[in-house]
């Protein structure tokens, strides 16, 4: 007989955390400590340890959690949305939903810095860029930004740095008032701190000869749906050295003359309606397209074509840039995590439908709008937009409008209601004849009429008319990729083919220091595609989104508890956006106290590049503070810098544990020095994975901190996004938390918007919510402890053969460590060679050269079991031996396994084998590799070559004729 406790359920913690009890015991033996708690005592300074366990609800099993969440989801009401304003219902093709959005092979990949094992998503992103370039009529596009509103702000900022000689001192940027309110609000946020004079007005009345004017932004179609031809306007603007940006609906551009053909200097917008659910605000991929001459100023990542060491075409991030724009104090943007997964989805939607399909969808959308206009005309309603794509503006008195609203609500329909009573109706890809019927019925009932319009016969033979002088005549998406994968089998195999080129967490651990590539559990991911979360418009009335509100309230409470703060804003869409939001909140706080002069941000030299970039965008002056030889902030230098700037001190930005992977013992003193001098402490929360349950930003003394939910809280990296960067604050900063111009939200003295949607990328907040709900206080704390144990275990093994930089006073690292590879340089081996050689062993490299050049930063996370850690260590030690062979002269310095890595199938199969080492050594460097070999599909990529021959769109292989091959 076996006795069991039937009340107990499977602990999710045991699935999330890699090491089991036996693993832990063996690892502790290697480290030489009796218990995990002994390790934690040696690692986390006593003075900052939490005294009490976190106060979080009892953890739920996966089964129970999903059952309960269903209930919460049921409180969201799925009304049909005609609100428009940049968010439209769309049909997510099943083949894309299941094989990309719901597929860990795609969503667990990292940002494609290691291009040789990222060719799949790089190709998918090239497709995205090409689609955007073609539709907008521009020469170059990036691989996504966070949302349309921030993309507009990036354009405003980019052009302020590109002002022509004649306009050197101009600082006015004009935005047409007929632009979405969330975009205007964001332009306000971004313009004020950097001294841009934002003017909002009617574009028809704008004086383009104004000496102070450097740029203009208009919406196309306009905010209320009307379409204008601004070709002449653009010409006049150019004659006056004024840059023109259009925020354009990409779908409309299949039918309408694209802004690029009207001369626009930049075109920005969202690709949401290309098969990405509304998700109550996101995530979606914004796009940014511009002229070739501005390619070096583009914010965000650009994917380009280059060649590999074998002379074959290969993709990689262009312009040596990775993030060309994050130039610390000289930054032109702070965008880091973007929206890769959503960009991939949108690009694939283009591949699946092709140019013909997209044109057809676009035509149907326009046709339905036309049909609806006819129907409403038959009821004597007046439609005000002379030309339109998908959005009608119906004239209505407030009394009529109110009636319509009431009846529409009964029929579960949301329209847009303008302040003057007019009604906005945006139709979309999902609109059907029945929907038009229902809308007409609502309007008929409200006006006491009956519909006499013969909808069916009108729909059967509708003659689609396009706005005169605005019809698109040029072709788009002519590349074969958009014209050959239209059957589901072809599409499925194309998606799979690309997926198979990429190494992700489904293959092996990705130990990226600072990026926390932990498990993204399936149970956490499942709710993301529930319609109750995906199908909701961000500006839907709050009484229809109670499920979301319940989830937000809990998440705010839990994150407050975890950070030791009083309130949290869920708005920022990435860590860097969180930094910016936090700094803007600090700025608002100082101003509220009359401290207008406080504009200095002190930042350690070891900080992530986004820190100074965000500070600059928030109008702050960056003062750097040095680090000592142990990787800690040099407290004497800090005191000096604070003294020199005490009157102007706005804040310190500090990462904790430091980017060097160490818990600084002096952190409390550091915070105190800042506070005594009137400053605030901003904590970069990228390293929260070493804090949760053991200490907290609040306990340490910070005032505000962002959390990268895509690092510590399980939102998958998606190949470079989505992410979420909520900020936690102490009570004195809470009144300033960002608001929204459309939905009541934020603090009582809220700063203007940081993201387009009030709760950012709301639909993926379900992931972090799931993680916390299933882990509970003890599970989260154990995760932190195991993250620290795993890192120290690797350290104990690797430090015998590699130099490990920095450690705490007891010789322990936090949750990550830095391996110094600079000594090998004397033998012609760079850190990059080690990174590439790891691919032959089936691993993705750790973080390369951050925060110290020539090093690797390893962060294993708690989700890796001992078997996986051992496999990784085996690879690293084996590589160390290969290095030794070079050092000892056994291997050739100019021709060895390291510098020739990674090795592709073609390299070992084609032609004669002429290397001084065997094929087996090249591609089967360890026994475990033979069992499941991961093959890089291209050899070492020549980035410089691609930058000299910049090419950022799909091109037939045959057209890619290298002019100056350097191989
Ligand atoms: C990842 C990271 C950031 C930037 O966060 P994003 O979400 O990519 O914008 C900032 N600081 C540190 C230390 C990071 O690791």
UniProtKB/TrEMBL annotation:
EC number assigned by the record: 1.4.4.2
Listed GO biological process terms: glycine decarboxylation via glycine cleavage system
Required co-factors: pyridoxal 5'-phosphate
Chain positions found as N6-(pyridoxal phosphate)lysine: 711
UniProt xrefs under SUPFAM superfamilies: PLP-dependent transferases (SSF53383)
UniProt keyword terms in alphabetical order: Oxidoreductase, Pyridoxal phosphate
Keyword Oxidoreductase in record: yes
One CC-aspect GO term: cytosol
MF (Gene Ontology): glycine binding; glycine dehydrogenase (decarboxylating) activity; pyridoxal phosphate binding
Enzyme class name: oxidoreductase
Reaction it catalyzes: N(6)-[(R)-lipoyl]-L-lysyl-[glycine-cleavage complex H protein] + glycine + H(+) = N(6)-[(R)-S(8)-aminomethyldihydrolipoyl]-L-lysyl-[glycine-cleavage complex H protein] + CO2
Segments forming domain Glycine cleavage system P-protein N-terminal: 14-443, 466-742
UniProt domain Glycine dehydrogenase C-terminal: residue ranges: 783-903
Pfam families recorded: GcvP2_C, GDC-P
Subunit-structure text: The glycine cleavage system is composed of four proteins: P, T, L and H.
Reported function: The glycine cleavage system catalyzes the degradation of glycine. The P protein binds the alpha-amino group of glycine through its pyridoxal phosphate cofactor; CO(2) is released and the remaining methylamine moiety is then transferred to the lipoamide cofactor of the H protein.
Similarity remark: Belongs to the GcvP family.
The name this protein goes by in its record: Glycine dehydrogenase (decarboxylating)
Provenance organism: Roseivirga echinicomitans
